Amino acid sequence: MKKLVFYPFLFTVFPILELFFKASSEIPFIETLRILIAAPIVTGLGMLLVYWWSRDWERAGFVVTIFLFIFFYYGSFYYVAWNLTFFGVRIGKHEILFPLWTMMLFILGSRWAWDRLQAGSLITKFLNITVTVTLLFSVGRYLLKVNRTQGLLREAPALPRVSLVHEEQFQLQSEQTPDIYYIILDSYAREDVLAQLYGLDG
Questions:
Q1: What is the pLDDT of residues 3-60, one digit of tens each?
Q2: Is residue 67 a contact partner of residue 46, using CB atoms and an 8 Å limit?
Q3: d(Cα 37, Cα 42) in Å, to the nearest integer?
Q4: Is the per-residue pLDDT at 2 higher than 60?
Q5: 141 HSE (CA, 13 A, CB side)
Q6: Cβ contacts of residue 18 below 8 Å, gap of 6+?
Q7: Of 146, 17, 8, 147, nearest to 66 (Cα)?
Q8: 78 with 50: CB under 8 angstroms?
Q9: pLDDT for position 161
Q10: Phi, psi dihedrals of residue 201, rounded to the nearest 5°
C-alpha cells in the first residue's frame, strides 16, 4: 500500500471535473462521463509504457503526471506568461514557452533527477494524499453549490401568473380566422443606402 500509485488517475480526472462543475448547466453529464472513463484508461496505458521503460511504478506515475500537468495546464501558464518579459523579450510565445516546458519535462522525468530525489515513496505518498484531498475538496464545493442553489429555488416565491388579455373576454367570433404573418428583419440598411438604392427617407 505504501507504493500504491493512484494519484495520476485522480490527477487526470480533476481538470475534467472542474470544467464540468463550472459549466454543468451547459454540458450534459453523459458527455463528461465518457471523457472520465477514457482519460484514466489513457493514463494507465501511459504508465504501462513508462514502467516498461523504467521498471519503476513510482517513477512511471511521476513522469505521466508531469505529462498530464503540461497537457492540462500549458494554456494557463501561457496566459499568465503572455505579458512577462525577460531582458526585453516576451516570454509568452509558443516558440519560447513550449521548449521551456519540454525541457522541464525531460529534466524532472529523467533518471538523473529521480535518483537525486531519493524519495520515491515519499513523493508517491505525498501526491496520493494531496491530489485526493484536492479532488474531494472540489467535489464537496460543487455539492454545496448545488445544494445551495436548490435551496434557493425551493425558497423562491412562485411568480404570479400574468394575463395580458382577460381570458373570459377573449373569444373567437368566427371559425375562419385571418392569416397572420410576422416579418422579422434581422438586419437594416444604413440611411444613405436606403436613400440611394430604394429612394427611402430613413
A1: 688 899 998 998 888 888 887 777 777 878 888 888 899 999 999 998 888 888 888 8
A2: yes
A3: 9
A4: no
A5: 11
A6: 138
A7: 8
A8: no
A9: 59
A10: -100, 100
